Amino acid sequence: MNVTNNYKIIHFLMTIRNVSKIQIKSCIDINRKYKRININQSFYGNFLMLNKEILFLYGEVNDTIADTIIKNIIYLNNTTTTKNLTLMINSPGGSVTSGLAMYDSFNLVDMHIGTTCIALAASMGAFLLGSGYKGKRNGFNHCRIMIHQPLGGIVGSFNQIESQANELLYYKLVLNSYISNFSSQAPVKVMRDCDRDYFMSSREAAKYGIIDNVLK
């Protein structure tokens, strides 16, 4: 580590005790003026949630959030003795490939990954909600769940359009097949329901089979 006269690390100590107590002593000499490093409150909150084996999918499903969740799932699976994890979901959906990557990580680990819808689980968010460990898929009392077929724009030459259309059809069949398996609904019914935006309350989603419990 290179240390200059202008930027010299004087002391850095971080001690974690019991999850609830963090003691941080840190100061850096910058041009001989000492400044204390403030730990971002959101970092502290995220650490506590991670330690309690709770992860959040909040917002759009994309490569960035998928990367974070997958890494945390694998980390917790390899470092904790408790084999239960909860994924809190409030998402309008997003990338199909990112969502399927998270789904594959659910099946990769030994942990039982439960899911809970906080406010909205739509599209790929609903898919991930339903893919949780059966018996541990929950929805808050006033949450909304929506399933539909995958969306995508198609541009290009005739051959390119044909190829992209086939890819959309492939994902439509794959997702509908999984939803049918999650919910125990007939594939034909799922296919018909997903032809449009199919909204459900938490109670309706429990009856449909996407979740198991309604949290009041």
UniProtKB/TrEMBL annotation:
Keyword Hydrolase: yes
Keyword Magnesium: no
Gene3D superfamilies: 2-enoyl-CoA Hydratase, Chain A, domain 1
SUPFAM superfamilies noted in UniProt: ClpP/crotonase
MF terms in GO: ATP-dependent peptidase activity; ATPase binding; serine-type endopeptidase activity
Gene Ontology BP, a term: protein quality control for misfolded or incompletely synthesized proteins
InterPro entries found in the cross-reference section: ClpP, ClpP/crotonase-like_dom_sf, ClpP/TepA
Transmembrane segments: 111-130
Alphabetically ordered keywords of this record: Hydrolase, Membrane, Nucleomorph, Protease, Transmembrane, Transmembrane helix
GO CC annotation terms, alphabetical: endopeptidase Clp complex
Ranges in coiled-coil conformation: none
Protein family per UniProt: Belongs to the peptidase S14 family.
Protein name: ATP-dependent Clp protease proteolytic subunit
Originating organism: Gymnochlora stellata
